[in-house]
Amino acid sequence: AVPIRLESCGKTFPGGSRALEPLDLTIRGGETIVFLGPSGCGKTTTLRMIAGLESPDPGGRVWFGEEDVTALPIERRNVGMVFQSYALFPNMSVAENVAYGLKVRRVERADRERRVEEMLDLMHLGAFAGRRVDQLSGGQRQRVALARALVVRPRVLLLDEPLTALDAKLRDSLRLDIDRLLRGLGVTAVYVTHDQGEAMALGDRIVVMAKGRVAQIGTPRDIYHRPTDGFVADFIGAMNRVSGQAQSGALRLGRGAFPWSGPDGPVELLIRPEDIALAAEGEEDTHLDGLVAAAVFLGDRTRLVVETGDGPPLTVDAASRSGLARGDRVGLRLDPSRLLNLPQP
Ligand code: ADP
Ligand code: MG
């Protein structure tokens, strides 16, 4: 599988401001990398530069392995693409849609038929080979789009929000299929999404983007547990803000005091819901007391909003069977090793 290297790839559209600051990034061969960020942050633009649908501003270079592909048009880069909208031929059969790229590449008939059949089996589409695409469900169409992109054995697979148009249940099952497929084929893949759950589930690494810049690159675990700034911390999962006071080597936070090496003064810290434990109000070793202002039953757990009277309310997870409800009073214990002290957005 081929590695991809972006070297100083920025993008300014004619008459527009800069959509993408010059970006340096190496994607390893066989890796699935996810571009994650809010709408308009430059994910699609970056993907289109890798595809050859957009060229970087002067000075930018795109490499596939040792080959400089900056000036190569899309049809000579051998990339497969899947979009949010299926972009299939509606009046052709499933098999004809999948065979299309092979025909264009003049793959001979017997070989073509064998590869189409293999790919349809792999995508659980064997039974639909003769069906017209406009008679398929959204999830099945997206499977056809994937099959069509992969059957030509692209050097690189590019996916731009392929699940966004599907409903939740289909999204989950197709996400699992994509995961299995990417891991099985070992193809270098770039996956664009604004959905952090998808990014965490699929990415070997995630590139978090904000306003045309890379905010952080790392494994899903890095990004979640060691965000490098407040934007990333807030964008991925739920994050709480608590304020403390640093004085002579100790950080006072509610009733608690933790060892602290920073300068004296007020400190804002971040902590995930799962790093706050619930106890009875005033219980020993708790740091804060609070009032449950809302309790949302989520099945596997109940998410509480707890007002402490000091700063914004905290999000805390309770076991569903705890029976905690709005109006209850609780004590909170913060895991000191999980407190993050980050530059704010
Ligand atoms: P994302 O995929 O993260 O939502 P895009 O890469 O599509 O973001 O867009 C990034 C920025 O570039 C946006 O501000 C968008 O309006 C702008 N942009 C994208 N394509 C064009 C274009 N063809 N012409 C002008 N501006 C564009
Ligand atoms: Mg986009």
TrEMBL record:
Signal peptide: none annotated. PROSITE patterns: ABC_TRANSPORTER_1, ABC_TRANSPORTER_2. InterPro entries: AAA+_ATPase (IPR003593), ABC_SmlMolc_Importer (IPR050093), ABC_transporter-like_ATP-bd (IPR003439), ABC_transporter-like_CS (IPR017871), Mo/tungstate-bd_C_term_dom (IPR008995), P-loop_NTPase (IPR027417), Transp-assoc_OB_typ2 (IPR013611). This is ABC transporter ATP-binding protein. Belongs to the ABC transporter superfamily. The keyword Aminoacyl-tRNA synthetase does not apply. One of its GO terms (molecular function) is ATP hydrolysis activity. Residues 4-236 form the ABC transporter domain. Keywords: ATP-binding, Nucleotide-binding, Transport. GO terms for cellular component: ATP-binding cassette (ABC) transporter complex.
